[in-house]
Design goal:
Layout lengths: L16 H31 L4 H12 L5 H9 L4 H25 L4 H29 L5 H30 L1 H19 L19 H15 L1 H17 L3 H12 L4 H11 L1 H17 L1 H11 L4 H5 L5 H33 L5 H12 L2 H16 L1 H13 L38
Helix pairs in contact: 1-6, 1-7, 1-10, 2-5, 2-10, 2-17, 3-5, 3-8, 3-16, 4-5, 4-7, 5-16, 6-7, 6-11, 6-12, 6-15, 8-9, 8-16, 9-17, 9-18, 11-15, 12-13, 12-15, 13-15, 17-18
């Protein structure tokens, strides 16, 4: 299959205007998301007196739409204009978020509305995620996947540094519901930036076979490719395991832990999470260096361990406010370092082994399992926290999450040194695959 025309110079991604605009769009919306990740749980905790179980439901509903990812990915693969889909989802999320401050000002804000906002923004996010990888592959040449993912992840990591601190400060100054306006405005800005991008988006490839309804058939092809491809199958097992365990805590229960157990103020919570998240920025910037030093596959494995393990450090936080905040911030620093080493290298590897004609379907199928387990993790975490306490839940996150690395130990992932070493075609199990199911 012929590779698409590449719009980005292999030597300098920053020189390409579409890449710069896309990067800026993502950076702005990620910053807004980090503000909301502090503000929305504090609406539930501070204004609506939500319990640990209710906060966990908020997280679960935000991720529940990923259970539809396999079908949504197939639907997105059939759409030509992925950029337009990203713009629409930005506008939808902005409108939904603005309903929170509006309801607050009218005195009608309820936990049910918070749940609805979490569900709808989550659904728009799944569609956006399925549309993102095909657009990424049109903007970036394969040799620059790790570098480009590093740049996007650096923006995301910077949002984890600044966003919680700004969010916590705004919550303390103007209240949590009004603070959500920042996230809504970030989505509007993102949509405007994406609207200025011009990128060649070819018509979707013709579908093969007509034995089943087209959408279900396409969804099945995406899932079959993930399950039968050795790299995608191993990475799916690892991601699903680490996501289940890390979502036992999730952002909501971490904020609850900081608020009710450590007794930190909203400003202190935001500042602690923001300072701790400098590890994410460092991880994003050093992920290409790590992959060159030890290989892409081994860098993924190192990240898989370092990502969940520091939750055990967070579990022992206590004492004076400065000591508790320092311990929690240190744990978050290591978590961020690990998650970026994991994400940057694994996302690049997955993009490299996925054929163009299947990108949205593979993303949707992968996300259905990988992200779909997050609501289950969040609800389980709420039950654990209610029964055994928040500290015990954080220890469970660390122990269970580290076990995810067992999926990566067998070949081929540990032996992959660089994306350039990947064969043009990597063998997959051949039971009933169509011609689209061979990576190029």
């Amino acid at each position: 299959m012929r590779r698409p025309r590449i719009s980005v110079s292999e030597t300098s991604l920053w020189r390409d205007r579409p890449f710069r605009l896309t990067w800026t769009s993502g950076a702005v919306s990620q910053f807004g998301d980090r503000v909301s990740e502090v503000a929305v749980p504090l609406i539930a905790i501070g204004l609506l007196d939500a319990s640990a179980a209710q906060v966990s439901w908020l997280t679960a509903l935000a991720w529940a739409p990923n259970l539809l990812g396999i079908v949504l990915g197939a639907w997105v693969d059939g759409r030509r204009r992925k950029r337009r889909l990203l713009i629409v989802t930005d506008l939808v999320r902005a409108g939904v978020l603005l309903s929170l401050p509006a309801a607050y000002l009218w005195g009608t804000l309820t936990l049910g509305q918070l749940y609805a906002v979490a569900l709808l923004t989550g659904l728009a996010g799944v569609v956006a995620g399925c549309a993102w990888q095909p657009l990424f592959a049109r903007l970036v040449p394969p040799s620059s996947y790790v570098d480009a993912n590093s740049k996007f992840s650096a923006a995301r990591s910077a949002s984890f540094v600044a966003g919680p601190a700004v969010g916590g400060g705004l919550v303390q100054a103007i209240g949590a519901p009004v603070t959500v306006v920042v996230d809504a405005l970030s989505f509007l800005a993102s949509a405007l930036l994406l609207g200025r991008i011009r990128v060649d988006e070819p018509a979707p490839a013709a579908r093969i076979g007509a034995a089943a309804p087209a959408l279900l058939r396409d969804a099945r092809e995406g899932l079959a490719f993930v399950v039968r491809h050795p790299v995608l199958r191993a990475s799916l097992g690892c991601c699903t395991t680490v996501n289940f365990f890390t979502f036992l805590a999730g952002t909501g229960l971490v904020v609850l832990f900081a608020d009710r157990v450590l007794q930190l103020s909203p400003g202190a919570i935001g500042l602690t999470l923001g300072v701790g998240s400098t590890g994410s920025l460092l991880g994003a910037l050093t992920a290409p260096w790590l992959s060159r030093r030890i290989g892409v596959g081994r860098a993924v494995a190192v990240g898989a361990v370092l990502f969940p393990a520091p939750y055990a450090l967070a579990a022992v936080a206590g004492g004076p406010a400065w000591a508790a905040a320092g311990c929690l911030g240190g744990a978050y620093f290591l978590v961020g370092l690990g998650v970026m080493w994991f994400d940057v290298n694994l996302n690049s590897l997955q993009t490299a082994v996925t054929p163009d004609a299947l990108r949205s379907r593979v993303t949707g199928a992968f996300g259905t399992v990988n992200y779909g387990v997050r609501p289950l993790g969040a609800l389980t975490g709420g039950a654990l926290a209610t029964t055994f306490g928040l500290r015990a839940t954080l220890v469970t996150v660390a122990v269970g999450g580290v076990l995810s690395v067992l999926w990566l130990l067998p070949l081929p992932i540990p032996g992959i040194r660089s994306l350039a070493d990947l064969p043009a075609e990597m063998p997959v199990q051949s039971a009933g695959l169509s011609p689209l199911d061979n990576p190029v």
